[in-house]
């Protein structure tokens, strides 16, 4: 295993010198007699890692200190006050009247447009209803006649009328749904 050649952080930061011994008395009593013994490389790595951790903690503490030294001033600047403005009832009534005078013509215009649209849709519905009734009454009189006696032109015409009837019924259903939705929205207003 190769030894790390890192320099101890204690030599970089002189104020972080080695601690005093925790042994009560002469530290020579606890040292080995053999002066050639060296510490385990794992122990040296552990000590250097601990020194790195201490340095990182110190740098983090300095960073936090720099970031928060101005906290009292910033908290005073960011402090918000609630301000209430009291107005008398006549002022509220005046602003309410101004607002209604401004909005009322637009609302009346929209209502008149909606009423015109409803009238157009009701006319269209009655026309489609009349077409539907007319188309329903015609095929019933012809249904009595057998298709065997009809020529190809009459059969095609019947098929075309049946398709047209189907389309008109679908249009009627769509318009009815539209009228119902408009009536519902008019009731909600």
Topology summary:
Blueprint lengths: L8 H4 L28 H28 L2 H8 L10 H55 L8 H37 L1
Question: How would you portray this structure in words?
Answer:
There is one protein chain. This protein has 189 residues and is mainly alpha-helical. 70% of the residues lie in helices and 0% in strands. The protein is elongated and about 120 Å long. The chain starts with 8 loop residues before the first helix and ends with a helix. The N terminus is likely disordered.
Strand content: under 5%
Overall geometry? elongated
- CA radius of gyration is 48 Å
Which structural class do the helices and strands define? mainly alpha
Extended strand count: 0
> In this structure, how is the largest beta sheet organized?
none
Give the termini separation: 86 Å
Low-pLDDT ranges: 1-7
Nearest-integer average pLDDT? 78
Helix content: 55-70%
Instruction: Please tally the helical runs, counting DSSP H or I stretches of 4 or more residues.
Output: 5
Order of helices and strands: HHHHH
Provide a short characterization of the protein structure:
By secondary structure, the protein is mainly alpha-helical. Helix content is 70%, strand content 0%.
List keywords for this structure.
mainly alpha; elongated; 189 residues; 70% helix
């Amino acid at each position: 295993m190769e030894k790390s050649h890192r320099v101890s952080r204690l030599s970089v930061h002189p104020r972080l010198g080695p601690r005093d011994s925790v042994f009560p008395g002469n530290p020579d009593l606890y040292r080995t007699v053999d002066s050639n013994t060296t510490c385990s490389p794992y122990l040296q790595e552990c000590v250097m890692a601990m020194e790195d951790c201490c340095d990182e903690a110190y740098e983090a503490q300095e960073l936090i200190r720099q970031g928060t030294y101005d906290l009292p001033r910033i908290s005073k600047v960011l402090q918000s006050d609630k301000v209430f403005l009291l107005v008398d009832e006549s002022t509220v009534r005046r602003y309410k009247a101004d607002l209604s005078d401004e909005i009322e013509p637009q609302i009346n215009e929209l209502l008149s447009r909606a009423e015109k649209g409803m009238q157009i849709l009701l006319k269209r519905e009655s026309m489609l209803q009349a077409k539907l009734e007319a188309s329903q009454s015609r095929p019933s009189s012809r249904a009595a006649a057998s298709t065997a006696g009809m020529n190809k032109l009459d059969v095609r015409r019947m098929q075309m009328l049946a398709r047209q009837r189907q389309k008109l019924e679908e249009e009627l259903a769509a318009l009815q749904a539209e009228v119902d939705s408009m009536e519902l929205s008019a009731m909600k207003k």
